[in-house]
Amino acid sequence: MGDDLNATSPLVVAVIPARGGSKGVPGKNLAPVAGVPLVVRAIRACLAAGRVSEVVVSTDDDGIAATAAQAGAIVVRRPAELANDTASSEAALRHVLETRYADRLPEVLLLVQCTSPFITAAEVDEVVAAIQERGADSAFTAAAFHGFIWREDGSAYGVNHDHRTRPRRQERPVEYLETGAAYAMRTEGFLAAGHRFFGTVQAVPTDPARVLEIDEPDDLARARAIAGLIETERPIPPAGAVQAVVLDFDGTQTDDRVWITADGTEQVAVHRGDGMGIAALRDAGLPILFLSTEVNSVVTARAAKLRVECVHATQDKVSELRAWCGRIGVDLAQVAYVGNDLNDLGCLQAVGWPVAVANAHPAVKQAAAWTTTAAGGHGAVREVAAWLLGDDLAGR
Known about the structure:
six-stranded parallel beta sheet, globular
């Protein structure tokens, strides 16, 4: 991306406006859904899109800028006069073009909104394809809509239908609802028109089940509640995105049961496949930490056998996590954390790649970017290792 791009290849730039001030949902663009901040969700969708050359986040906020840079986006700092309640998204697009692309305008300019948490790379690619392959000058994501719209002016009347008749769905023309997720434009046409809809406009159909715009706190709560139902596939970390792995112990590497002998000794069962996965992660050069609140020598014994670091008997897992990341020089955004219970929530919310095991507490699953199919103590950690290493683990 960026300066390494071939000067003769079409330049396609995705711009994600993400200002710091949001009155409807304070701190909205950094609010997590399934453990991932909204701005990062938009960045990941754009980075995974094959037709996008560069991903730019336009912001006035230090926290958003840092998070966006860690997620792999180019950051363009937006002046205050373009970041107030009345500033338009078009103004942010023009500022990005003037600031970064004055010497080489992109062929296609994208506007991608953080407020659509379930946007996909395929949707981003499709609006670009409408420009590059299907003759559109501008395009937008849209969902097929079959509802009857009414307006009231003293008496209610039909807007998109004659309310005196009720045509069947198959007898009515398909209408489209603008989703607000992604827009694509020929850059020169955008600059001439001054807005995102000009020339030949195409609606790019998307899955209506994924349409949700976050404008109010209830929208955010709804997105968090349905994320696990909509996003059934694991997110794929870009190369180098995960630089360290932190694992809870009880309930994550065990099934959360404890056998207690007559003399009070505690025993647990672990999964050999998990041990193989941890060894593979270690051999791949990823630092690994066992992080547990339990006071139990079995945790340190297991860590010693697998030759990984261990911190246990801690009541402040987040502080220990931050301290460990500082010692090894890895940013929290580059950490995968695997947990199962409420005392893991702080760590899951702090890292870039939060994972829950299949039998985790519902609140933990809600905070995770994805949930393993295996339960804790039954191969969940090996599943995480396969997620991170792919083919490198297949033959083990």
